[in-house]
Amino acid sequence: MGVVELLAKALAEVGVDTEGVDLESAASRRIFRVGRFEDLHYVSFRRQFRGVPEGSAVVFAGGESRIVWGYPPIRRVLLPRVAIPKWFPGPSVVVEEKMNGYNVRVFEAGGKIYAVTRGGLICPYTTRRLRRLHGDGLASMLEDLGPDHYVAGEVVGLENPYTRYYYEESPRFGYFVFDIFRGRERLAPREKYRIAPEYGLRTVRMLGEIKAGEDGAERLKAIVEELEREGREGVVLKDPESRVEPLKYTTSHTNIGDLRLGMQFPFEEGRSFLFSRILREAFKEWEEGARRYYELGSAILEPAIESIDRVSRGEGVYEEFELELGGVEESEEVLTFFASLGVSLEVVRVERGRDGVRAVFRKPRKSGAEISWILRTGLSPLD
Ligand code: ATP
Ligand code: MG
Questions:
Q1: Among 64, 72, 182, 349, which one has the highest count of C-beta atoms within 10 angstroms of its own C-beta?
Q2: pLDDT tens digit string along 171-184?
Q3: Which of these CATH numbers, 3.40.630.30, 1.10.620.20, 3.30.470.30, 3.40.50.150, describes 100-203?
Q4: Considering every ligand atom, which ligand is closest to the CA of 250?
Q5: Among 71, 95, 98, residue to substitute to test ligand 1 (most atoms within 8 Å of Cβ)
Q6: This prediction's pTM
Q7: Cα(154) to centroid of ligand 2, in Å?
Q8: Which run of H or E residues covers position 94?
Q9: pLDDT confidence band for 67 (50 / 70 / 90)
Q10: Helix or strand (DSSP H, E) at 189
Q11: Of all protein residues, whose CA lies closest to atom 4 belonging to ligand 1?
Q12: Which atom of ligand 1 is the closest one to the Cα of 118?
């Protein structure tokens, strides 16, 4: 059977009707892509299709198929006082820490675990590193739970190709479970706090359980102020019975910090971060009047000026990251994986150390070329 037939069969098994749907044409419209990792073939959905959410992965393993559903987007709160009583059925709401890294869903097949990115691709680097760190724990937990289960968590720390924030509890690479799914359903928060530690897995912190009313919102304010002081990202609010979707709320520390990081690349994250982050701070200022005006303004201008400086000195604008690898061949694997996504990484250096191989990569950014054009012509590419 070809992949398209396998896909139709797999989707039918989970109740997605593909009768009369031209999957070949969906494939040619690049709605999904076919991937392979080790002896596993899979299809990942780049866009929502027939009720299958973006980021879903249909995996074919040993004559069977399984689906890891796309991780659902989480709505953002701007005014907790208004949103909490309206959104949650009550009587309480679980406040979990929102950690700042990248979303990784893990499934198990044939005794091995695989790490799926938000986009529905199996990331070789994350898979190998997670296997070394928590391979046994994750595999036995998922085996005990059954094949329709997968786990979602945040990879945090500095050693990854995606999002780098320093965490004291995990400076380099850590995995913190935040949800366990059975099919499309997320288990109740208390279930994951009970199950994950039994397998030696870490979870995101549970910061409290608040009332689903205005007094709960007051409590939340105190929790967020504490996170603000500690320089942490924010919270995800969850119904104790998972009856409604979670909501997220982030600290000014993160909203403004994101702008500072993003504006190093003004034509990339800079552009897409600006309005949303300013809106968050505008509503917070209106509620609380913290007057972070200077902080916000300098977070926008300083990194952009620094990038212009770099380019004017003839230096490039890029992201740089260091990875710990099992061997030199894993460095090739990282390059191939990113090349398949249209990103050509550059290897800066590879060193054999005591704990395997360490490699430094560079990801070039198009902001560099834009800035360089402006410096040459003196003109604006916008208005
Ligand atoms: P989207 O807005 O589409 O959900 P995003 O990655 O841009 O995606 P974020 O602002 O990072 O949005 O918030 C959602 C992400 O937060 C989740 O995808 C997950 O990776 C991360 N996260 C961190 N901690 C938690 C937690 N405790 N519960 C749920 N998600 C969490
Ligand atoms: Mg995030």
A1: 72
A2: 999 999 999 999 99
A3: 3.30.470.30
A4: 1
A5: 98
A6: 0.96
A7: 8
A8: strand 92-98
A9: very high
A10: helix 189-198
A11: 73
A12: 18
**Span 251-268, pLDDT tens digits:** 999 999 999 999 999 999
Helix axes 328-340, 124-145, angle to 10 degrees: 90
Q: Nearest residue CA, atom 24 of ligand 1?
A: 98
**Mean pLDDT, residues 288-293:** 97
Copy the structure tokens of residue 88: 């949650």
The helix-helix angle for 293-312 and 271-288 (nearest 10°) equals 160
Strands 102-109 and 112-116: antiparallel
| 212-246 pLDDT, tens digit each | 999 999 999 999 999 999 999 999 999 999 999 99
pLDDT beyond 90 at 288: yes
Where does 3-68 sit in CATH, by number? 3.10.450
Task: Tell me the CA–centroid distance for residue 103 and ligand 1, in Å.
Answer: 7
